[in-house]
Amino acid sequence: MKQILSFLAVSLTLTVISCGSNDTTTEKQPFTTDDVKTSSAPSGEDLYKRNCASCHMAAGDGIANVYPPLAKSDYLSNREQAIHQVINGSSGKIVVNGKEYNNTMPPQRLNDDEVAAVLTFVYTNRMMENNGQPVTAEEVKAVREKQ
After folding, report:
1. What's the whole-model pTM score?
2. Is 70 domain-assigned?
3. Is 54 inside any structural domain?
């Protein structure tokens, strides 16, 4: 057992070392929060995949009796409510497409541009059939300011 653990530790160490870049032409700098501001923002689809799809599923169908659908969702008809939901999350009963859901959605830690991007994806993605208009960062900011 001790030999197996030693082998795994050495293998893991070699894997970590080998995953590093061989580029020695530039000095590596540590990651800072400023890097997020200057890098290109992720798309609404990328944000959806990272933050929403695990519960609401890739096509926005949700999980019956657990997580509500975002596809063809009447809940999205109230844009301010939808923005508020993403920013603040919720706990307790909500009704979507006539069905009651009683679960928790954590607040999403996204900035105004990211909230706008992910909701724009949900509203305008043909697969979800919501046929909505894009959400702007200004709309998101206005909802945040009301809180």
Report:
1. 0.72
2. yes
3. yes
